[in-house]
Amino acid sequence: MTFSTFPATSRMTLVTLDAVNQASRVIAGKAYRTPMVRSTNLSAMVGVDLYLKLEPMQKTGSFKVRGAINKVATLTADERARGVVTFSAGNHGQGLAWAATHAGVRCTVVSPATAVKSKVEAMRAYGSDVIQTSGDLFATVEQLQHEHGYAFVSPFDDPYIIAGAGTVTDEIYDDLPDADAILFGIGGGGLASGAAAVSRARRPEARLIGVEPEGACAMRQSIDKGEPVKLNPPPKTVADGLAAPMAGPLTFAHVRDLGVEVIVLPDAAIVEAMWLMIERAKVLTEPAAAAGFAALLQQAITPALPAGSKVVVIVSGGNVDRERLKALG
Q: CA 125 to CA 33: how far, in whole Å?
């Protein structure tokens, strides 16, 4: 897989804990405070004290609604009147559709033609117009902006989106202040960036470990290259929630500057982890949300986490349907 680079970033203004705390106030009463549970079975399998932060129980079925609510709250009166547009394989689109509709703002989501059917149906059910294309998502978004004047809401590379995502990790430390490591999937890097912003303020010594699929490893390639890259050809992975075609300049800066470790795994390892979470922990998770557990299961973390470490896996979403599960079986 080849890649092209964006303009190099030096030092960017990173999201702060204060911004995350403000996001917590904005989303209060709109998004849920999701539970975190310890899994005895999975802990025994991987040799650490393992906790699962259950974002499948969030509104719209993933953490994405947190950032969407926070971002929509910042729109100007003019932007609200014009409406918003984004690109998404499903989870961000659902979150933005919910947030925009509840704020009385028109929402349009551009999705790949291959998007999971149930996610497309959910975006429409939450109130969004959905345009599916086999072409370039960004070009379609730009065309819609030109034709209708929509305000663009990034799925990940926006400080308000990152701050909203950071509320997940803020809740983790409220419940488990001495967590030794937090694991999560990386798509565009919004969840990773929010986790890093909170962790470096609340528990600097905690390890932050992000996982990407081999077919969609823009962040890993960006770290290796030293600047954010766009994948070419487009990403290809069963973990559609991690299939971001690029690392954003802002998310790249967070991952680089705040010491997020980035691991790359094959799709098969992620799917295996998903099924074990379903079978052993009774947590219905989509492939993207199982990536963090997959790194533990495959012993892919170097150096390894000490036995008995308190480890949290952010189960980022559970938007998977019967057809998808059958295909992954």
A: 23
Quick: pLDDT tens for 66-118. Answer: 999 999 999 999 999 999 999 998 999 999 999 999 999 999 999 999 888 89
Asked if residues 96 and 128 have their Cβ atoms less than 8 Å apart, the reply is: yes
Nearest of 254, 325, 285, 320 to residue 122 by alpha carbon: 320
What whole-number distance in Å separates Cα of residue 59 and Cα of residue 272?
26
Look at strands 151-152 and 84-87 and give their pairing.
parallel
Task: Name the CA radius of gyration of the chain, rounded.
Answer: 18
Task: Pull the structure tokens for residue 64.
Answer: 């994405």
Specify whether the CB–CB gap between 270 and 238 falls below 8 A: yes
User: 116 phi and psi, to 5 degrees?
Assistant: -60, 130
Among candidate residues 45, 88, 165, the one with its CA nearest the CA of residue 319? 88
Tokens read off for 151: 């305000």
User: Is the omega angle on the peptide bond into residue 233 within 30 degrees of 0, that is, cis?
Assistant: yes
Q: Which fold has domain 65-152?
A: Rossmann fold (3.40.50)
Inter-residue contact 49 to 296 (CB < 8 Å):
no
208, 192 Cβ separation under 8 angstroms? yes
Q: What is the pLDDT of residue 5?
A: 38
Contact status, residue 56 vs residue 317, Cβ threshold 8 Å: yes
Q: CATH 3.40.50.1100 spans which residues of the chain?
A: 2-62+158-328, 65-152
Cα torsion angle, 33, 314, 108, 130, sign: negative
| Residue 275: pLDDT over 80 | yes
CATH 3.30.360.10 for the 2-62+158-328 domain, yes or no? no
Alpha-carbon span 290 to 299, nearest angstrom: 14
